[in-house]
Amino acid sequence: MAQPLYTAHLENKLLLSEPAQCYHLEFSISGLNSFDFIPGQFVSMVSVDPHGKEQTRAYSIASAPAGNRFDLCLNKVEGGFFSNKLCDMEPGQDVRFYGPNGFFTLRQPLTDSIFIATGTGIAPMRGFIQHLFPASGSESSPESGKDRSEGRRIWLVYGTRHETGLYYHQYFEKLAAEHPNFQYLPTLSRPQEDWKGLHGYVQDHVVELLKSRSNGNHPAPTAAGPATFDIHAYICGLNKMVSSNRQHLLELGWQRKQIVYERYD
């Protein structure tokens, strides 16, 4: 059965990074009171290019469910039809889309979780985190403000080259200060001298995090039952980063079902 084609109305637009030309876009859906999706899913934008050909491009939703609204986070790409179209939109303009779709979602029951992201791979992670730690008074469900993390330890390991590429940095810092079971670990591979955070690549810090977790009397990441684990990893970004992190975790004895991932290339 074919999915319905919706119209998304751009409500707000924010430039997250001038050097990266990364934008945060907030949409509402015409004719709908509620847009039901699972955090981590994506929408498929549809438009006709200058040559008259219909183009479709998938983008992870960068928010948790909130009425008839959803957010996107994307970079302008040189020569890219859809990234330029969306990033050049102004509030008040519309774009068509299908969705939601995708299986990059939090596994149940919820376990301790490591979110690993680079660049705009942060989009679905923001959706996960908004769902687990919703802000009081938000426009989401009647459960707005109710902590859904169940006391599980949640780590966000977010890497990029430069500090300007850490999208939603202040939001994650604030959340980590408010929730003891959420730890935000930003790391830069090419930091400036005044950067006081972590250096290097995400996979290096994931390994150190797991060593620290084991030393803190937490069990190693092995199965507690036929398909029950005490920890999961969720990885989103370019293929090279995803593959490297998956390989590291498998070498540490993780099972494949503990590693949930989505690649952007």
Task: Present the secondary structure layout.
Layout: E1 6-17, E2 22-29, E3 42-48, E4 54-60, E5 69-75, H1 81-87, E6 94-101, E7 112-118, H2 122-132, E8 154-160, H3 169-178, E9 182-188, E10 198-199, H4 202-215, E11 231-237, H5 239-251, E12 259-263
Parallel strand pairs: 7-8, 7-11, 8-9, 9-10, 11-12
Antiparallel strand pairs: 1-2, 1-6, 2-5, 3-4, 3-6
Helix pairs in contact: 4-5
Structural notes for this entry:
The structure is a single chain. With 265 residues, the chain is an alpha/beta fold. It has two domains: 6-101, Translation factors (Elongation Factor Tu (Ef-tu), domain 3, Beta Barrel), CATH 2.40.30.10; 112-263, Rossmann fold. 21% of the residues lie in helices and 32% in strands. The chain has a six-stranded antiparallel beta sheet with strand order 4-3-6-1-2-5. α4 runs parallel beside α5. The model is unreliable at 137-143 and 217-227 (pLDDT under 50).
Identify the notable features of this structure and list them briefly:
Elongation Factor Tu (Ef-tu), domain 3, Rossmann fold, alpha/beta, 5 helices, six-stranded antiparallel beta sheet
